[in-house]
């Protein structure tokens, strides 16, 4: 069924719409890590992949996977915990999706909650003081707490990916075993290339697009756009859309910039954002003319709106996210085939 709407449905309904302090305050007794960049897995390790959790890690044995509810900052958080225990030590990964009510409290609130109701009893959570160390997993910032207690080395690492918080935990008398485990942790890349043969474009997306036709009005004519809407399960506020339409011969395409500007103005007016219509700038992609509009909503979500003309076809590309990385991943991979 074709939906009847005006040019708003070229996805600028996105233009309305939350930053999280990823730095934590904490302190741990300093312990020097081995200087080697990596340590090979031991023969007993096996790669554990969590499809639901979106991560992989080298476990010394098959983990036990359980769910737990822990109150953090007044909010009950549902955690999924995968734990492997051996004679050498205990190794675990837990994750939860942070609710909006906790976004402004940072990891200190999470730590206090976990001290009161530990995820893993094998670790001495009270040994974590007020200052951890900044760490990075690829380009993802995190926080690490490494300490020595009763002859055992313990390492906790926190990483926030959009609204999903990961906690990597290891405790053993052998520091190499701890180091090996935490450094094997990887977050899965959920983005995959998507190609539309009919639309003659490609782009990286976090989920398979939902394709719908949209009936749009422009200069008294009805145009049928094909619209691709993409969601991000790891960042629920993210929205990405691509739409294209083949212009009829009655639409003048001699002045590409004028055409793109007129379309953009119509769209922005329809969502009460007419003040932005004069803020666009000309751009090009693979030699084709385009026009771009950038804005940030009161909710902290940044949006990029782009229009392109390729011969007699008009494209609209919209991306909205709190993550500059996500915006760049989507926009920089969009291309014509």
Poorly predicted parts: 1-44
Helix content: 10-25%
The sequence of SSEs as H and E is EEEEEEEHEEEEEHEEEEEEHEEEEHE
- Largest sheet composition: 8 strands, mixed
Tell me the overall shape: elongated
The Cα radius of gyration reads 25 Å
Helix-and-strand structural type: mainly beta
Q: What's this entry about, in short?
A:
This protein has four helices and 23 strands. It has 337 residues and is mainly beta.
Furnish the topology, listing elements before pairings.
Blueprint: E1 3-4, E2 26-27, E3 46-50, E4 55-59, E5 64-72, E6 75-85, E7 89-97, H1 106-116, E8 129-130, E9 133-137, E10 140-149, E11 152-161, E12 164-172, H2 175-184, E13 186-187, E14 192-196, E15 201-205, E16 210-218, E17 221-231, E18 239-246, H3 256-270, E19 281-285, E20 288-296, E21 302-310, E22 313-321, H4 324-333, E23 335-336
Parallel strand pairs: 1-16
Antiparallel strand pairs: 2-8, 3-4, 4-13, 5-6, 6-7, 7-12, 9-10, 10-11, 11-12, 14-15, 15-23, 16-17, 17-18, 18-22, 19-20, 20-21, 21-22
Structural write-up:
The protein is mainly beta and 337 residues long. The protein has four helices and 23 strands. It has helices at residues 106-116, 175-184, 256-270, 324-333; strands spanning 3-4, 26-27, 46-50, 55-59, 64-72, 75-85, 89-97, 129-130, 133-137, 140-149, 152-161, 164-172, 186-187, 192-196, 201-205, 210-218, 221-231, 239-246, 281-285, 288-296, 302-310, 313-321, 335-336. The strands form five sheets. The protein has an eight-stranded mixed beta sheet, with helices on both faces. A seven-stranded antiparallel beta sheet has the order 5-6-7-12-11-10-9.
């Amino acid at each position: 069924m074709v939906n009847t709407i005006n040019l708003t449905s070229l996805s600028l309904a996105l233009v309305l719409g939350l930053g999280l302090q990823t730095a934590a305050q904490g302190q741990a007794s300093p312990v020097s890590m081995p200087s080697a960049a990596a340590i090979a897995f031991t023969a007993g390790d096996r790669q554990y992949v969590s499809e639901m959790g979106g991560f992989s890690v080298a476990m010394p044995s098959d983990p036990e996977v359980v769910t737990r509810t822990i109150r953090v900052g007044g909010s009950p958080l549902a955690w999924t915990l995968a734990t492997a225990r051996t004679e050498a030590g205990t190794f675990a990964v837990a994750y939860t999706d942070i609710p909006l009510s906790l976004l402004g409290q940072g990891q200190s609130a999470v730590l206090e909650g976990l001290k009161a109701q530990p995820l893993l009893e094998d670790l001495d959570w009270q040994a974590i003081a007020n200052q951890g160390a900044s760490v990075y997993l690829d380009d993802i910032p995190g926080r690490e707490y490494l300490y020595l207690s009763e002859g055992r080395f313990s390492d906790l690492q926190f990483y926030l990916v959009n609204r999903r918080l990961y906690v990597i935990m290891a405790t053993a008398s052998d520091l190499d075993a701890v180091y090996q485990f935490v450094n094997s942790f990887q977050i899965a890349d959920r983005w995959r290339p998507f190609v539309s043969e009919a639309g003659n474009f490609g782009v990286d997306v976090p989920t398979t697009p939902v394709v719908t036709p949209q009936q749009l009005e422009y200069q008294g004519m009805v145009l049928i756009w094909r619209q691709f809407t993409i969601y991000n399960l790891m960042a629920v506020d993210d929205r990405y859309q691509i739409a294209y339409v083949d212009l009829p011969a009655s639409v003048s395409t001699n002045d590409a910039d004028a055409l793109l500007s007129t379309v953009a103005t119509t769209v922005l007016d329809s969502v009460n954002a007419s003040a932005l219509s004069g803020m666009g700038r000309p751009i090009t992609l693979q030699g084709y003319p385009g026009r771009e509009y950038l804005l940030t909503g009161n909710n902290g979500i940044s949006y990029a709106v782009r229009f392109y003309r390729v011969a007699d076809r008009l494209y609209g590309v919209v991306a909205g996210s709190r993550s500059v990385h996500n915006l760049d991943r989507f926009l920089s991979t969009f291309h014509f085939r």
